[in-house]
TrEMBL record:
Belongs to the KdsA family. One of its GO terms (molecular function) is 3-deoxy-8-phosphooctulonate synthase activity. Signal peptide: none annotated. It catalyses: D-arabinose 5-phosphate + phosphoenolpyruvate + H2O = 3-deoxy-alpha-D-manno-2-octulosonate-8-phosphate + phosphate. This is 3-deoxy-8-phosphooctulonate synthase. It holds the Pfam family DAHP_synth_1. Keywords: Cytoplasm, Transferase. It comes from the Bacteria. Its EC number is 2.5.1.55. The gene is kdsA. It is found in: Cytoplasm.
Length: 272
């Protein structure tokens, strides 16, 4: 995939990794703008190609009383406003076939969640919109097997596809990242490392997913060191009170320092 196929993306000639980042879910316009403004400032200063991420709804939840969203159209309109206000592309997850057409009217990249990446109808619906498609690697899938999901998009005459590693199940309540999978998937498509979801601790007995945010810097540095094309990070100015995935998000206050370290590593890698 040519990164320039993503509308409005900047700094593609900088030699940096590209970044998909934002809150797990769109909780409201004010919070989305606050997070987007900070990330845009940082990524422009460091010349990092940036796509703002926010889920317009959350369908994969542990409990029926978990937060699922503020309304589909309302959240998608906020994503569209972020794009227009800050001049950046946006990405959101889709969970049902009908979501593809709806979300494609508002965002630039459609993301297929890891649990759903084998759902052919969903992948095809996303591909047929002509939008860039980001396929999350299933936690239950090998890196090699992702070639079949990629091929489904290509078979729809849509060359704009990328894959994202978000860890692999390790027992019942933990995830691991096998960095051997990065070069394997890069042979298939542009490859992203989802740092924060790779640090989830799912299936907790309380019904709320746990996480290891203290390991975000470690996993991110390793991903850049092995040459991943892009990094995916969820961030929030108040993770403890975020309505989704707060346990594994990066606090927004730490975002700039981490990006500076990752840029420095990428510059070193580029010199070899």
């Amino acid at each position: 995939m040519n990164l320039n196929s993503i509308p409005q993306i900047k700094h593609t000639d900088s030699g940096n990794f590209f970044l998909l980042a934002g809150p797990c879910a769109i909780e409201g316009e004010e919070m989305a703008f606050k997070i987007a403004e900070r990330i845009v400032t940082i990524t422009n200063d460091l010349k990092i190609p940036f796509v703002f991420k926010g889920s317009f709804k959350k369908a994969n939840r542990s409990r029926i009383d978990s937060f699922t969203g503020i309304g589909d159209e309302k959240a998608l309109q906020i994503l569209q406003k972020v794009s227009k206000e800050f001049g950046v592309p946006t990405v959101t997850d889709i969970h049902e076939v009908n979501d593809a057409h709806l979300a494609a009217q508002y965002v630039d990249v459609l993301q297929i969640p890891a649990f759903l990446v084998r759902q052919t109808d969903l992948v095809v619906a996303a591909a047929n919109t002509g939008k860039v498609v980001n396929l999350k690697k299933g936690q239950f899938m090998s890196p090699e097997s992702m070639k079949h999901a990629v091929q489904k998009v290509l078979d729809c005459n849509n060359p704009n596809v990328m894959v994202t590693d978000r860890g692999t199940m390790f027992g019942y309540q933990d995830m691991i990242v096998d960095f051997r999978g990065i070069p394997t998937m890069q042979q298939q498509a542009t490859t992203v490392l989802d740092v924060t979801h790779s640090l989830q601790q799912p299936n907790q007995t309380i019904g709320v997913t746990g996480g290891r945010p203290d390991m975000i810097e470690t996993i991110a540095k390793a991903g850049i060191a092995v040459g991943v094309d892009g990094i995916f990070i969820e961030t929030h100015f108040d993770p403890a009170n975020a309505k989704s995935d707060g346990a594994n998000m990066l606090h927004l206050d730490y975002f700039e320092d981490l990006m500076k370290k990752l840029v420095a590593i990428r510059q070193t890698v580029n010199n070899f």
